[in-house]
Amino acid sequence: MTTQTSTATQQPSTVLPMVIIGILFFIFGFVTWLNGSLIPFLKIICELNEFQALFVTFAFYIAYTVMAFPMSFLLNKTGYRNGMAIGLAIMVAGSLAFIPAAQSGQFGYFLIALFILGTGLTILQTASNPYVVKIGPKESAAMRISIMGLINKAAGVIVPMVFTVLILADMGDVSEQSIAALSATERQATIDALSNKLIMPYIYMAIALTALIALVKFSGLPELPPEPEASNSDVKQSVFHLPQVVLGAIALFAYVGVEVIAGDTIGLYGSGLEVANFAGLTSYTMVFMVIGYIIGVTCIPRYISQRNALLGSAIAGVLCIIGVIFSSTTNTSIADILWGWSGIATIPNTVTFVALMGLAHALVWPSLWPLALDGVGRFTSQASALLIMGISGGAILPLIFGKMAQVMDNTQLAYVVGIPCYLFILFYALKGHKMRKWS
Description:
Layout: H1 2-32, H2 34-45, H3 50-53, H4 55-78, H5 80-96, H6 98-104, H7 107-134, H8 141-168, H9 176-180, H10 184-196, H11 199-218, H12 243-264, H13 266-272, H14 282-299, H15 306-326, H16 333-338, H17 349-360, H18 364-373, H19 380-389, H20 393-408, H21 411-414, H22 418-430
């Protein structure tokens, strides 16, 4: 009787944190997947090549590497709730930094603003992911993270469409080809107008983030209880003595790299193939990721274990890369079958496989976190920070992709960079997550 009463009493305290964290995950998706739509526009405004344009992802995601451990120590000092509020405040500063960046049209200012945004997201991610893992049974942790991912990727579906409408309203055709055909005076006027159009979306974002600071600060969001000692029989001196965490961070590095490549390069790739509405192509990848997260919510752990979800994701990812490289750049037969009947614009088969990568790897993040944090005990905040550092894959791997595309003069073939990434995720699913000693 006592146990039942206690459980009933604790249940409401679980609902409120999940709702608040869900709102934060929507913000993660909103800010993160804005980059996919931003890149083609900055490529035009700042007159960049494909490799230079992908420094957008580098500046944003490298913040996770630089700031993850400092943010974990900050969390230990401030607690999770105050830390989240600080993270949101930093993001407000990053959003407002886009105003002078857009007015000047200088690429370096845009990169600074993106780094500040990434810094704010670092503390939010470091706090929120272990929060979701620890707030309920570990067997269903992947299901809870899948719910958060579903919210996150839903934002990714909405953002490219909203952003494109806000930017392109009254602008007409602003593709690279159309701007190149203008006279020097007309071209500069169009570029200046396009740059100034970037200001309002980030002002709206700053207002929304300010409101969220109040929500997090005064919501009564409970703190996580203190962690017990690590469950490993031998005493670990640091998080680097936990192989499942270190290898998990490398697997996340590989995963986030291919996730960003799938979401943020599809617009560039589509632009090169002269696909209509190329700036909105990120939405296709996000729709497939949403489908993947729905599978996670409904099937984990009832039908699919966290380990098998990770395994299936890796295999599907390799198959998608093969599809990208070897399928047609003009034929739309796959899209015709999958959604052509709905009236949604179809895209070439090779671009469809880039979008399908979103479905292939959707369950990597929710499956990997609980496997990597299993048994880490008092090292939870440090382990979370190390895993968050793996997000730097989103900074480095797209640059490698961009350089390969530039050197080979073949964007389609550059997607081969994803194969070793998926193979390492396969290794982690088969062996890496079970390792508790280095030897």
